[in-house]
């Protein structure tokens, strides 16, 4: 029987994506909602790792379960790695991503392709009931386009171009995106760490 892990998110799409990546593991991932947990968590860390740890520990402390959380975002080198940890709040908490994407495109107006380098970063933390926390971090490199392309992704996907695959992450199919995305890679790394930890017990 698979062990249940709570993922500190209310995003059903994210849970679906995570279970797809974790399907051949000993774990079944459920959302906070499915676990009956409804708390607001203040993410006041200064790095992706700190925010992921804050979320995982907050839910683990009240549920006494293994809890996983992620914090991810877009770093644009020309903008001093902004929006970074503020990616979700960039331009205002409730601003649509089409507006956020346009804001970034506007800030890079006239900037040459070689200076439009960017990456998606994802840090994942897993908090155990005994207080131990393990983390994993991965990224995917690309650059920012001057217009949106594709409708398969969400967030900043339509402006993030991956030269290796000659498309944006919003133009990729789910299988390819899960394979090469920052979250997909970080989850697989975390899965390995968790399985290694299980063997040590």
Detailed description of the structure:
This protein has 201 residues and is of the alpha+beta class. It has one domain (3-200): Alpha-Beta Complex (Maf protein), CATH 3.90.950.10. The protein contains 5 helices and 8 strands; from the N terminus they run βαβαββαββββαα. A hairpin with a 4-residue loop joins strand 7 (160-162) and strand 8. The longest helix is centred in the C-terminal third of the chain and has 19 residues, at 182-200. The model has no long low-confidence stretch (mean pLDDT 93).
Q: Mind telling me the C-alpha Rg?
A: 17 Å
What is the percentage of strand-forming residues?
15-25%
Total of helices: 5
Shape: globular
Helix content: 25-40%
From the 3D structure, determine the CATH topology.
Maf protein
Give helix and strand order, one letter per element, not per position.
EHEHEEHEEEEHH
Number of domains: 1
Structural class: alpha+beta
Mean pLDDT: 93
CATH architectural name: Alpha-Beta Complex
Low-confidence stretches: none
Tags for this model:
alpha+beta; Maf protein; 31% helix; 201 residues; single chain; 5 helices
Blueprint of the fold:
Elements: E1 3-7, H1 12-21, E2 27-31, H2 48-63, E3 67-76, E4 82-83, H3 97-107, E5 117-127, E6 133-144, E7 160-162, E8 167-168, H4 174-180, H5 182-200
Parallel strand pairs: 1-2, 1-3
Antiparallel strand pairs: 3-4, 3-5, 5-6, 6-7, 7-8
Helix pairs in contact: 4-5
């Amino acid at each position: 029987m698979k062990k249940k892990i709570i993922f500190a998110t209310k995003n059903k799409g994210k849970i679906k994506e995570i279970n797809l990546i974790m399907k051949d593991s000993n774990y079944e991932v459920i959302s906070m909602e499915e676990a009956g947990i409804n708390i607001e968590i203040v993410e006041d860390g200064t790095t992706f790792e700190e925010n992921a740890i804050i979320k995982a520990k907050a839910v683990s402390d009240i549920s006494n379960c293994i809890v996983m959380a992620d914090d991810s975002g877009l770093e644009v080198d020309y903008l001093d790695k902004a929006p970074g940890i503020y990616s979700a709040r960039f331009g205002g908490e409730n601003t649509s991503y089409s507006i956020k994407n346009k804001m970034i495109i506007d800030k890079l107006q006239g900037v040459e392709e070689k200076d439009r380098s960017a990456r998606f970063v994802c840090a994942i933390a897993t908090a155990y009931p005994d207080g131990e926390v393990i983390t994993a971090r991965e990224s995917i490199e690309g650059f920012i386009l001057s217009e949106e392309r594709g409708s398969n992704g969400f967030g900043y996907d339509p402006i993030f171009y991956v030269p290796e695959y000659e498309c944006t992450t919003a133009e990729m199919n789910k299988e390819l995106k899960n394979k090469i995305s920052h979250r997909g890679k970080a989850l697989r790394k975390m899965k390995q760490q968790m399985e290694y930890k299980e063997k040590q017990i």
